[in-house]
Amino acid sequence: MKSAKLESLTHALKMEPIFGAFLAGILISSSQAASPEKLAPLRALVMSVLAPLFLASAGLRIDLTALAAPTVLMCAIVVLLVAIIGKFTGAYLGARLSRLNHWEGITLGASMNARGVVQVIVATVGPRLGILNTATYTIIVLVAIITSLMAAPILRSAITHLAEDPEEQHRGSWGKQRLPEGELGRRDISGQAICG
To answer: Domain locations in the chain?
Structure first.
């Protein structure tokens, strides 16, 4: 109910309703009455039903045939390269300037390079406002998908070169602890149960 009211409010303010839904999520999760146990069913519904539906609807707007036009394909390649070089290289150089080693820089660069769902959410607003055509929308979403898919193999490779400090060793051993019988989920760094 809160979500619908905030969506209506943001729409009335000439903002996107999705921003209202985001604000509702923040308010609900930061409420004193909302414990992780009480939020678990809502989180399960959002993650297993609503988020996949949103991403499916975003995917339905993509037109891969637009890439058949040489100018659109070239534009897609240029945008992808600029996105990767800008974010990955910027994060890598920032890491090196902060005295992190090469592999820590690669890890940070790969992590920052992944755009994922946030870019897709922003891109879905463009066609509705008439500021993105189908080809541009397709390029933006493909950049989000490709950079997100790149992250996992790069991170897997880079992490094998990182030395574990004592804090990471402790965190790693903590993650291997068994949960008490009948308890579902994982625990966060403070030991709180994470449902879902």
So the answer is: 1-29, 61-163
